[in-house]
Amino acid sequence: MIQLCNIGKVYANGAPALHDVSLKIPAGDFVCLTGASGAGKSTLLRLLYCAERPSRGQILLGERNITRLRPRQIALLRRQIGFVFQDFKLLLKRSVFENVALPLQVQGLDRQTIHSRVYKMLQYVGLEYKLQRTPLELSGGEQQRVAIARAMIGQPRLLLADEPTGNLDNELAGEIMEMFERINLLGTTVLIASHDRELAQRFVRRTIVLKDGHILSDQRLAQARPQNRED
Ligand SMILES: Nc1ncnc2c1ncn2[C@@H]1O[C@H](COP(=O)(O)OP(=O)(O)OP(=O)(O)O)[C@@H](O)[C@H]1O
User: Fold this and answer.
1) Per-residue model confidence (pLDDT) at position 228
2) What is the complex's ipTM, to 2 decimals?
3) pLDDT value of position 223
4) pLDDT under 50 in the chain at which residues?
5) What tens digit of pLDDT does each residue of 14-57 get?
6) Domains of the chain by range and CATH?
7) Ligand 1 pocket, residues with Cβ under 6 angstroms
């Protein structure tokens, strides 16, 4: 369960991004944060990833207050959280395999374990036959799948994705959303930020609309499936 309690965020330059946002996201949920540019979607994701600190309020992940963690604690927390960036943030000089292996190397796992987990993950996203390519030798959709594989390789309980389909055409965007759907069905809580409310609504269970840093609406969708993981 994720809980945001009266979260406010004002950036150092004085720009207000979120105002008194309170929200509960049960484990196993599949949620889209949507709203116009500047509504606060990325800020909310970045707060959950501890890339920013709230100016006010508390954030709980499960029982844990993650509002003011030290860098070492943040690094450990991030093992439970995958983050998919709109611009992929892949290492362009490293192979697909190396990009996906990196989080496991940081954790100090042995080579054989890393090899078998990375290979399985690349099979899962359909890229096992391109593991020696570098990102620039891949299409945009393939790069995004590598980014998803890297975010999922540590088997996180929570997957955050900021405009994951923003750079893709409609068909590829649909494929990426299907991948998130499958990841969610395996039990991972998925929270995406997307301008494309229509696309998201075909897949997610719940849509939260932000406007000027406030929650405008929070709607559970009709096709919602029962949740499959308790926390
Ligand atoms: N690092 C930053 N420093 C200062 N202000 C920021 C920073 N990041 C975001 N903001 C401001 O905070 C507000 C919310 O921005 P945020 O990026 O969260 O919105 P968003 O809904 O994700 O927008 P977009 O869809 O364009 O990515 C905006 O007014 C933005 O200008």
Assistant:
1) 46
2) 0.97
3) 61
4) 226-231
5) 999 999 999 999 999 999 999 999 999 999 999 999 999 999 99
6) 1-80+157-220 (3.40.50.300), 88-155 (no CATH)
7) 11, 13, 15, 17, 35, 37-43, 193, 195
Whose CA is closest to atom 8 on ligand 1? 43
Atom 7 of ligand 1: nearest residue by CA position: 11
Residue owning the nearest CA to atom 28 of ligand 1: 38
Q: Whose CA is nearest to atom 31 of ligand 1?
A: 38
CA of 126 to the centre of ligand 1 (A): 33
| pTM of the entire predicted model | 0.93
Closest-lying ligand 1 atom to the alpha carbon of residue 43 = 18
**Does residue 215 contact residue 184 with C-beta atoms inside 8 Å?**
no
Mutate which of 9, 32, 42 to test ligand 1's pocket (most atoms within 8 Å of Cβ)? Answer: 42
Distance 52 CA to ligand 1 centre (A): 12
Q: What is the DSSP string of 75-126?
A: HHHGGGEEEE-TT----TTS-HHHHHHHHHHHTT--HHHHHHHHHHHHHHTT
